Amino acid sequence: MSDNLLEMSGVHTHIGAYHILHGVDLAVPRGQLTMLLGRNGAGKTTTLRTIMGLWQASQGVVRFNGTDITRLNTPQIAGLNIAYVPETMGIFSDLTVKENMLLAARQARHAAQMDEARLKWIFGLFPAVEKFWNHPAGKLSGGQKQMLAVSRVIVEPRELLIIDEPSKGLAPAIINNMIDAFAQLKASGVTILLVEQNFNFAKRLGDSVAVMDNGVVVHAGSMQALADNEALQTSLLGLAL
Amino acid sequence: MSLLATRDLTIRFGGHVAVNNVTCAFEPGTLTAIVGPNGAGKTTYFNLISGQLKATSGTVSLDGRDLSGQSPSARTRAGLGRAFQLTNLFPNLSVLENVRLAVQATRDGPHRRGLNLWSIWSDHAALTDRALEILNTVSMADRRDAAVASLPHGDQRKLEVALLMALESKVFMFDEPTAGMNAAEAPVILNLIRQLKNDKTKTILLVEHKMDVVRELADRIIVLHNGTLVADGDPATVIASPVVQEAYLGVAKEAA
Prior knowledge:
The complex is a heterodimer of chains A (241) and B (256). With 241 residues, chain A is of the alpha/beta class. Chain A has helices at residues 44-51, 74-78, 97-104, 116-125, 127-131, 142-153, 172-187, 199-205, 223-228, 230-237, and strands at residues 4-15, 18-29, 33-37, 57-64, 67-68, 82-85, 160-164, 191-195, 208-213, 216-222. Chain B has helices spanning 42-50, 72-78, 95-106, 117-137, 153-166, 186-198, 211-217, 235-240, 242-248, 251-255, and strands at 4-13, 16-26, 31-35, 57-62, 65-66, 80-82, 171-175, 203-207, 220-225, 228-233. Helices cover 39% and strands 23% of the residues of chain B.
């Protein structure tokens, strides 16, 4: 088996009449944190949605742990121990914060069955989750909903975390907590794939990086190499100017 | 005279006081950044000013006129312009048509006075001229015929500011204008805000978490914490204050 937990090769995705992904090749190395960067409209979110089966690839293959998952439906893909935070967060507004967490905790049928130590860890990272535990999630602010969305995917250990813009709308202190959290998760063997616009955040966390433009991956390599090469950053990430 | 003012502005959701007695005035020619932890009440404060939420108590006034009982659209006509992150653009119309509609909304032209082909044509030409002038200001005249839905994200944000200009807004409110933009796209909107700042008749309010942006653009920073105004002053002083360092930036915690 290769060292890549997730691999996409030659993936094309159409959304209605639009051809969005034009042959994406992406490797997510096992146990590493991979950053997916690129300007708006480059195809990053579509790539994540295609991995999760929310859009069907029209061509190409998505492999997880060496198995072809291209034609699986979303619940089957999630069932492989993959957790996903979409751009829209997917918070259930009428349910309480606790109920949102409980739904994500597949091993627990009652709040009492959730892993207490893990919850304590989450409360430390994101105090708002504890503070509003019994409040409807719809009452949370934008940034607090983002904290809840990330809390849901880490409520139990998963093999792969896929998060679309984790730092969006978060205050600096919380972004620091989140950087610590991802570092701890990685140390426990979790593989992480993040779409991120905040390059400083990306730089501090990423092991490997892929940059997309116009529906294809135009650069892939180590984050360190990209962070050290300003000319490369400008040519890859300054494209939209 | 200060242009925009809130006095004892408060909203309660059940037992939770989201904005608590905020009294603050915003002068023309000044960009005020509003910072604070997530859930501090920043967006709610914006909602109370623009009228999306009705205050439990307190007032919002513009040029001394109390707007507290007014609808959001009446407040927009009075000069409160709020950027809504794309939801107020017409995606299937062209860039020019979007701006022209906004110009038209501010004019009492012949289009409001019944059918007369000549006046409709001449009026239309005047609206188009004004719309093009605004598009020039935001450097988008070359995209005039593009459908809004086909524009890159940064250009859609720019167009939204163009609409606020067309509406002859006196106050420009931005809630995380660079959210979801990468390092290459953010300058497009930031340059436009910088350009707005040069017009000393405009009052600008900015909610922003990126401290490099705040440092660069803000003339003044106010800090909300648990719905209360806890700090107000020049950027260097406010950023150095313990409440910002600990509660917001988390610096003290890191050092500990």
